[in-house]
Amino acid sequence: MQVHHRLLERDPEFRLRQAELERKIHNRLAAGTSVRQAVTTVPVVVHVVYKTADEKITAAQVKSQIAALNKDYRATNPDKSKVPSVWQGLVTDARVQFALATRNPAGNKTSGILYVRTTQAAFPDDDSVKAPATGGSAGWPSARYLNVWVCSLGDGLLGYAQFPGGPAKTDGIVILNRAFGTTGTATAPFRLGRTGTHEVGHWLNLRHIWGDTEDCSGTDFVADTPNAQHPNYGKPRFPHVSCQNGPNGDMFMNYMDYVDDDAMLMFTAQQVVRMQASLDGPRATIGK
Amino acid sequence: MAVDTPREWLHQEWVHSHEEDRDDEMVFRPASFKFPPSRGRRSIDLRRDGTVGHARPGPDDRRQRSAGRWEIDGHALKLFPATGKTPAEVYRITSASPDRLVLRSG
Ligand SMILES: [Zn+2]
Questions:
Q1: What is the rounded average pLDDT for all residues in chain A?
Q2: pTM for this entry
Q3: Cα–Cα distance measured from residue A118 to residue A177, given in angstroms and rounded to the nearest whole number
Q4: Angle at which helices A269-280 and A12-31 pack, to 10 degrees?
Q5: Which fold has domain B8-105?
């Protein structure tokens, strides 16, 4: 995550904001309560950046992604029954839902879907899809909207995100068109909209369950996900033990691992506290 | 196979083809391999000058790059940090050919 480090180095304020956010989350985790008890509705603007007809995905495909997010973030996804019984009690409603924006920043009616033509065959993971000057589409004010850019990505990448506290201009998530939604060009094993679920998790400040190191030293700053060594891919068989986390092993069925869409099923209680802390803090203006 | 003397073709960027992994064996393919989409892939660029370029998925899923050194010792591939004499990772090369490199932990 070169860009993240680059931001930390070039923008000391970003480092300060991140440290301050971690301090607040720590206090919140200790207190165990959130300011927002009700369900937050996040207004979403989807920038469909396309060159070919295939990349110009339909409104139905966009809406299928919103529907998938609404299931996963309210823990109403039917496949949560596949969570191993030892962790069934940790499956938690994040109290967040999503709706395509109905008003643009000027206050006029909108479908919440922007179609923007580009000459770029594919975008790298460098934020270029987020600016017209580099063939992309400018984000709407991130204090009010979740910006979602949908495009073709290079290097086989499915998506990337930006944590709270970063630059407003690039705030939001980017998702490969073929991994977006549950219909149209969405392609298995990434056809259940879970790339969106995962990236929104980062946007609400969640970290990967392996803690972003490969030697068990890292952490996701969440107490109820077991420490894990590596990302898990595909459809792992339970249990997969690493970092002395037996007998139950890695919580690879968590949305913040790297498994296939049909193998990720849940957020935990503490992950929800962490997400709600970002809605009480750096994302306090969202859904208000 | 023994790779005491690194073959010419070993000097390239190897990308983790995790779909092909078996048990504790990791399969790497040249960067030119036709990989399916993935949430992220690790790669190791084994350069002729003894340096290695790492790329792996970072905390926000963008690719994160770092550098170090590499060495072949018998059947072992040793990956060192940019500074320091203790390898950060040691793998046993269980199979190697120009289009497929198989590593086992330990
Ligand atoms: Zn991620």
A1: 93
A2: 0.92
A3: 14
A4: 130
A5: Lipocalin (2.40.128)
